[in-house]
Amino acid sequence: MGDCLEPLKERLGSIVGEHAQMIDDSRLLLQNVWRVRLLPFRVIGRDDVGLVEDFPFCATMVDFRGQLGDSRCTAGGGGEGPRSALDALFSAVIRSEWRPETEAHRFVILFTDAQPCSTLHPVTADGGPDDVSEVRQVIRIRRAHPVFLAPRSPELEAIYGSYPSGRRADASKTFPLFATAEDARDYFMMDTREKRDHFARGLAHLTEPVVGCIGPCEGCLD
């Protein structure tokens, strides 16, 4: 991610902070109604156990900014190989302590400027699922909403293409896959008002309450 990671982290912190403040100002329930966590990931095929880092869910901006500023959430040392994006998706869905689906909308948002490897790393998968079809299946079983800000690839297109439109807006229309890695990096720089506004509107649109939705209260998300 190189030069574009820090601008992306800064803008992500600002947008989440603004959304959290909006919820805090309007909520009636005396409980947290949003949570977020980061799972930084690196190059596939390495033997280190830090292939996918694992931060816990947090419900305050102080904690989330702490995750954004953690040394594990930095670019470097990855090389040019395919990234472990499928491992990150698998971990985000399976190893997250989600609230019941009647209480929260479950989003998994992927940011990457590189192609994913088409199989899962054995350290992360523990000998279990080993390809994109298994990742696609766990996303559907756990009823998570995948959102990809990433270059186009057969793996991510297969996941987007299998996810039906329904109660939540089609994420692939809100954030279509980028044509190239350069396009992804250019977007992540957030160096124009147009990009910043599109990013903010996209995240806000994904978390809007759905008319007629039976389940989570307005503003609830994981």
Characteristic terms for this protein:
two-stranded parallel sheet, 222 residues, Rossmann fold, mainly alpha
Strand arrangement in the largest pleated sheet: 1-2
Straight-line distance between termini: 25 Å
Shape: globular
DSSP strand tally: 2
Number of helices: 9
The overall number of domains is 1
What is the second-level CATH architecture?
A: 3-Layer(aba) Sandwich
Helix content: 40-55%
Q: Estimate the strand proportion.
A: under 5%
Structural class: mainly alpha
Structure, explained:
The chain is globular and about 45 Å long. 40% of the residues lie in helices and 5% in strands. α1 packs antiparallel against α2, α3 packs parallel to α5 and α5 runs parallel beside α6. The protein has a two-stranded parallel ribbon with strand order 1-2. The protein has 222 residues and is mostly helical. The protein has a single domain, classed as Rossmann fold, CATH 3.40.50. About 5% of the residues have low confidence.
Q: How would you summarize the topology of this molecule?
A:
Blueprint: H1 5-26, H2 61-68, H3 85-94, E1 107-111, H4 122-125, H5 132-141, E2 145-149, H6 154-162, H7 171-174, H8 181-188, H9 193-206
Parallel strand pairs: 1-2
Helix pairs in contact: 1-2, 3-5, 5-6
The gist of it:
The chain contains 9 helices and 2 strands. It is mainly alpha-helical and 222 residues long. Mean pLDDT is 78; it is low at 210-219.
